[in-house]
C-alpha cells in the first residue's frame, strides 16, 4: 500500500464507521447540507448524540474522560479559518499572521426555529498564575445570545482577548472595539500570545447539520522557539486522544509532504484510521501545474497517501466574494459549478468528495457513529473514575469536628504514649531498642579493644602478640571501628621504666602503687571517646524516632507540626545536655578511686594472667617474628599480626633469666586483672546511664513539657489551639477539588446512564 500512512486490518479502530460508499450521496450543486434528513429518525438520533456530548462538555466531562471530538488543524494560511467559516456559517476574526490564538469549540445544532449564537469561555488552565479562583471546568457565558451573524466576529475577538489576558473581569472586554482589542493585545504585558483555555461557540440554526468540532491555533513558523513548541504541544495534546477525529487542512498550492500538520497527524495516527484530509485553495492551481493537478487527483481517488476516511476538496469564498457578502447557498453553488467544470476536480468519479455540504454531512455522520460506539466504554470509564475519586476522598483526613484543645491534647498524648512504648520496647515497638542494643554492642567491642597490650618480652618488636589465657585474640578491632584509639603496646622494659619513674621512698623490692595507677589510668582515659560516640549514636536514633512520630501524629496540621518540632527540639536539646553530663559523671566514677569489691574475681583473674605471662615469657620462641611475619604453632594466629602496633626500631635481643622481671610480670597481671573487672562494669554502667538519663528521661518528661510550653492551660488557649489545628489550605483545596470532581462524575454517570438512542 503506497502513501505515508499504513493500515492494520486486525487492529480495532475506535473511529470505525461505515465506508464512504455508504455515506449519504450529495448531488452536484446541492445547496443544503442534508435537509432531506432533518425529519428522519436518524436526524433525531444525531441531535440527541450531539446534545449529549454538548451537555457532557458543559459539565466539564472532557477534563475527566476523553470525549469523541473533531479537531481541525493546519498551518498558517492553510485556509483553516475560511473552512471554519464555510462549515459554521459565521465570520471569524481575520488578521495578518495567526488569527486563532486559543482553541475554539464550535457546536452546530438544528434544534431551533431561528438562528442564534451563544459564546462562552471555559478556563481550564491557570495560564497567568492567578490561582485556582479563575479556573473553572464549566463554561461561562460571554455576553447575551447573538441573533445577528454580523455581531459574531467582534464578539469572538472580545472573547479571545479575555482568554489571552487572563483578567478575572473578562466581561469588560465585551465593550471593546476591534481597534482597542488589537492595541491591548500588542501593548499589555499580561496578555499571552496563545492559551489553552477555550472559547465555546454554540450555533443554533434550523438549516444546520449537527456537528461539533474544535478549531485549534494554526501551526506557526516565524515565532520564538518557545511559542512554536507551545502551539505544537497544544495541537499534539488534542490529536493524541484515540477518540479524536483529525481534520487536516491542506492547501492545494503546497505539496502534501511539506505540511507540518500532516506530519503531526501521521505521528498521532500512524495507521491513518482517524485522520481526514481537507484540500483547500483548490482554485489556486493554475492550468500549467499539471504535476500538482495529477498528484491531488491521485490523492482524492485513494491512489496515494491513503487515509481510511479519505480526503475532501472544498472551494472557499475568495476576498472579492466575501467583500460582496455572497450568501452561504450562493457560495456552495459557485463551488459546485467550479468542481463540475474545472479539471482535475471534474475528472474524479466520487462526487461526494467535493464541496462543503458533502463534507459536513459525512463527517457529521462519522462523528455521531464514533460517539454512539464510545458510549458503553465511556460509562465504564466514568464508573472507574468515580470509584477512584471516592477512594482518594476516604484516604484524606476528615474535617475537624472536635474541640481544638481536645484535639491537640489527644494528639500530644498519643504521640507521647507511642514514644514511651518505643523507648520501653513494648508491644511491636522493638526497633528503637534493637538499634540501641546494636550501639551498645559496638561500645562493648570498643572498650574491649582498649585492653592493656602487655607483651612479656624484653623487646616486643621481636615477637608477635600472644593469645589471651582462654585462647582468644584480645583487643582485635571490630570491622569499621579501626578509628578507636588502642592501648599502647608495652613490653617488660617499658613496664620496668614505669615502675622506675613511680618509685619514691619505697624500700627495695617494693613495687610502688603509683606504677599500677599510671597503667590503669591509661585504659580508663581511652574510654571517653567510645562512650561519647555511643551516646551520640543513641541520641541520633532517638531524634530520628521523635521526628518520625511528630510527623505521624501532627502532619495533618502544619502549624501544629511546626510548633511541635520546635518545642520537641528544645526539650531534646536540654535533656541531651543533662544526659551528657551524667555520662561524664559515670565515667568519672572509674577515674578515682581505683576500687572494686569484686575481689574474688580480681584475684582469680590476676593469678590467671600472671601464670599466662610467665608461660609466654618462658617460651619466647613460639612468638618470634621472622621477616616481619610471625611463626606460631597456630597458623590461624599468624593473621593477628595485622592488629599489632607499628614495629619500632629493634633493640638487641636479650636472654632473660627465668626469675628476672618478676615485679614487672606482677604489675602486668594486676593491671590486666583490674581492666577485666572495670571493663565488665563499664560496659553495663554506660548504657544504663544513657538509657536512664537520656531515653527514659525524655520519654517520661516530654508530654508535660510540651503541654506546658504549647500553652494549653493559658488564658488564650482556645484561640491558640484553633490556630494550631487550622487545616492546611492545600488539603482543604484537595478535598474541595475531589468533592467537585465527585459531584461532576455523579452527574455525568447519571446523564450517561439515562441516555438511550
TrEMBL record:
It comes from the Eukaryota. GO terms for biological process: endocytosis; intracellular distribution of mitochondria; mitochondrial fission; peroxisome fission. The keyword Hydrolase does not apply. Residues 664-757 form the GED domain. Residues 1-12 have a biased composition (Basic residues). Pfam families: Dynamin_M, Dynamin_N, GED. Gene3D superfamilies: Dynamin, middle domain, P-loop containing nucleotide triphosphate hydrolases. Keywords: GTP-binding, Nucleotide-binding. GO terms for molecular function: GTP binding; GTPase activity; microtubule binding. Transmembrane segments: none annotated. PROSITE patterns: G_DYNAMIN_2 (PS51718), GED (PS51388). PANTHER family: DYNAMIN (PTHR11566), DYNAMIN RELATED PROTEIN 1, ISOFORM A (PTHR11566:SF21). This is GED domain-containing protein. It comes from Jaapia argillacea MUCL 33604.
